[in-house]
Amino acid sequence: MGQSEEARRRLDSQLTLGNGFEPDEREEIIEEFVPLGKKLAAFDADAVSLTVSVTSRETPDQEVTLQCTIYGEDERTVTGTSAKNDLVEALVESRRRVTQQLRESEVEQTVSPLRRLFGGK
């Protein structure tokens, strides 16, 4: 099974469609989140939960929210939002924001022990 196919399979089990989305949109949403799914492959599949929702859909006030929770010893939740008017663009932007926060969190987890070791803040 290829990386993209594995990411889709995992995302299908991890993703909850929240307010504003219909079940028949699931496959398209999963497709937009495949790059994030590849990033989340570093975690146990059962330790990841994703929820995507949209408020004020198809209006100038539309906002997409993607929440990603990673359970475990270092449990954390990151959220990406987008107010782009195009729904697909908003999904992509929220995905990018979650991915960026995950990267930043990985760096912080690497740097924090070094700071303690060397007496930094």
How would you describe what is shown here?
A hairpin with a 5-residue loop joins strand 3 and strand 4. The protein starts with a helix and ends with a helix. The protein has 121 residues and is α+β, with helices and mostly antiparallel strands. The chain is globular, with a radius of gyration of 16 Å. The protein has a single domain, classed as Double Stranded RNA Binding Domain, CATH 3.30.160.100. The protein has 3 helices and 4 strands. The protein has helices at 3-14, 26-40, 87-118; strands spanning 15-17, 48-55, 63-70, 76-82. 25% of the residues are buried. Helix 2 runs parallel beside helix 3 (87-118). The chain has a 4-stranded mixed β-sheet.
Keywords:
121 residues; alpha+beta; Double Stranded RNA Binding Domain; 4-stranded mixed beta sheet; 3 helices; 4 strands; 21% strand; globular
Relevant CATH superfamily: Ribosome hibernation promotion factor-like
Describe the largest sheet: 4 strands, mixed
- Indicate the CATH topology: Double Stranded RNA Binding Domain
Overall 3D form: globular
Strand content: 15-25%
Gap between N and C termini: 44 Å
Question: What is the average per-residue confidence, as pLDDT, rounded to a whole number?
Answer: 90
Q: How many helical elements?
A: 3
- At CATH level 2, the architecture is 2-Layer Sandwich
Q: Percent helix among the residues?
A: 40-55%
Return Rg in Å: 16 Å
Low-confidence stretches: none
Widest β-sheet, arrangement of strands: 1-2-3-4
Structural class: alpha+beta
The CATH class, by name, is Alpha Beta
Q: Helices and strands, in N-to-C order?
A: HEHEEEH
